Amino acid sequence: MVNAEESTKAGLSRLQDDARPTICSDSLELISNIAEVGLDEILQNEFLKDIPVISSLVSIYKIGNNIHNAHLLKKYACFLDEFNRDSFENGSWNKYKQYFEESNRKRDIEYLLILLERYIEEDKARRLAKIYEAYLDKEISWDDLRLFAETLDRFLPGDYEMLREKETFQTLRGRDAEVLLRLTGLGLLIEDIHRQQWDVVDTTLIFDDPDEIEKEERVYRRTEFGNRMVSILG
């Protein structure tokens, strides 16, 4: 007898097969704003259940009937909703559709599903759609897509909002400083060093007191990588 775990794995395998025809299908028009409705409505909506990938996700949820599968369903709905809205608004729908009709694109689908399952916040699913659109529009390479998507995965709530806020930041300590240091670690910001931290006195090299340096205001600015991230995610 097949257990729930094996059935879920089979459902996920079917999900990969269903994802490609869903992304390039006119049926995406039916799921506009799907991410704004509740889980119960998604499970009961007859139109949505006719869409292959949504049908597979609903099946996975019903098999496992747990929070993880429900969250996966919602995240995929967010991704499709954002992809759908943007592609129609920017007039790229036919180009995207041709891309998926030309070949299998299995690599794309598998990687996107792995990321969507890993992400915790639903807004990351929406932002992943924008990164993928940039790739389809040939603004970034496949390696770039992976870099942006993996960086997105490491954002904590509020990180991107701060990155997007402005190009240059001035701060001392506190929560903002922690976020700025984290963004610096991701290569999105760089610290500007405006003052000399040493001097020469009577041929002797004298370094400034580290404690005094620590008290001074720090200045951070966006790197080119950070600017590209903001440009893509908006």
Short note summarizing the structure:
Helices cover 64% and strands 9% of the residues. The chain is mainly α and 234 residues long.
What does the model show?
The protein has 234 residues and is mostly helical. The chain folds into 2 domains: 4-153, no CATH class; 159-233, Orthogonal Bundle (Arc Repressor Mutant, subunit A). It contains 13 helices and 5 strands. The strands form 2 sheets. Strands 1-5-2 form a 3-stranded antiparallel β-sheet. Strands 3-4 form a two-stranded antiparallel ribbon. Helix 1 runs antiparallel to helix 4 (52-64), helix 1 crosses helix 7 (106-118) and helix 4 (52-64) packs antiparallel against helix 5 (67-89). The radius of gyration is 23 Å and the shape is elongated. It starts with a helix and ends with a helix.
List keywords for this structure.
234 residues; Arc Repressor Mutant, subunit A; three-stranded antiparallel beta sheet
Number of helical stretches of at least 4 residues = 13
Q: Give the beta-strand count.
A: 5
SSE-based structural type:
mainly alpha
Q: Report the radius of gyration as a whole number of Å.
A: 23 Å
The strand line-up of the biggest sheet is 1-5-2
How many individual domains? Answer: 2
Sheet having the most strands: 3 strands, antiparallel
> Whole-number average pLDDT?
73
Order of helices and strands: HHHHHHHHHHEHEEEHEH
Strand content: 5-15%
- Give the helix proportion (percent range): 55-70%
Q: What is the first-to-last residue Cα distance?
A: 49 Å
Spans with pLDDT under 50 lasting ≥5 residues? 1-12
Silhouette: elongated
